[in-house]
């Protein structure tokens, strides 16, 4: 590399003891990396918060503005260092651009991993201690080994991309599992439509200068998968697939034809019986609204809850009421106490599921709930 000589006011030239190439490139890398890391952390934080809030269109616009600001800052650094150093390898500029994309990608992955953790999804994540600064490796001659450094940056970018893919796959698989399980019960989920409506225009080839935008679109696609999973998981609260009783109990009778305990003749039993001590809490099997509190012939004291989708659950032979008609309840809300009122041989909960005027076997509902909970861990 050629060094320019500087003369002092007397015309004498100082000794040619310039900065060593390896030291200069190292200082340049640290300066550039430090500014990029700091700039990214400060400017991306508000957008990450909006990303977690689901405002994806605002995120795209905000990121484009901040990417432009970061490019201006990096260009300024390049210009200053070019003026000081003279002829700089253009590949260093390409690496710094790659590093900029990597830093943004890493911030997005951190945000997505945080959201996935909140939803109980454990995803493969990049090494937390992986260095984010552009660390230039050198050859035996002391010059920067651009190829090795580029390979290192590319590897880190692949790792962060793999993390985003892992989150999306896990969320999509769980969503599909919930939809499938509830679909077997005739429950159709009303999930949000993540596809934009009212879009179009002529096909124009992609602009390679906007390389960072697809990365943000990938992150938004992962966030869409997480939002769909969250909606599917939340829908479980309105599906009567949760046990209506806890503690010490046993199933004492199933759904369908059985020997009547009073007459000994064959008779139809329209629900499940769970034998338990008098006073044991009876829980709502899902979110809903209490539509009936009172007595019915043969059932004794009864509470009924409407869960939407045409589904109603009935809890009978109760000893006491804990809910009132018109009350909104959540999954697991205590609504009554086990008893032996009505046509009953001993304290137990009689649990029914109805779609319209037709009774359904509650067992497939409760079994589905167990499978889904096991799938979600």
Overview of this protein structure:
Residues 268-362 form the M23ase beta-sheet core domain. Keywords: Hydrolase, Membrane, Transmembrane, Transmembrane helix. The chain crosses the membrane at residues 22-45. Pfam families: Peptidase_M23 (PF01551). It comes from Devosia lucknowensis. The chain is of the alpha+beta class. Among the domains are: 21-167, no CATH class; 249-363, Glucose Permease (Domain IIA). The protein is built from six helices and twelve strands. It has helices at 21-52, 56-85, 90-118, 146-183, 212-235, 362-376, and strands spanning 249-253, 256-259, 266-269, 272-276, 281-283, 288-296, 300-306, 311-321, 328-329, 334-338, 348-355, 358-360. Strands 1, 4, 5, 6, 7, 8, 9, 10, 11 and 12 form a ten-stranded antiparallel beta sheet that branches. A two-stranded antiparallel ribbon has the order 2-3. Strand 11 and strand 12 form a beta hairpin. Helix 1 (21-52) packs antiparallel against helix 2 and helix 1 packs parallel to helix 3 (90-118). The radius of gyration is 33 Å and the shape is elongated.
Cα Rg: 33 Å
Tally of helical runs: 6
> First CA to last CA: what distance?
61 Å
- Arithmetic mean pLDDT: 74
Q: Regions with pLDDT < 50 over 5+ consecutive residues?
A: 1-60, 124-139
**Major sheet:** 10 strands, antiparallel
Give a count of the beta strands, DSSP E runs of length 2 or more: 12
Strand residue percentage: 15-25%
Global geometry: elongated
Content-based structural category = alpha+beta
Helix content: 40-55%
InterPro entries: Cell_wall_metabolism_enzyme, Dup_hybrid_motif, M23ase_b-sheet_dom
Transmembrane segments: 22-45
Protein name: Murein DD-endopeptidase MepM and murein hydrolase activator NlpD, contain LysM domain
Keywords: Hydrolase, Membrane, Transmembrane, Transmembrane helix
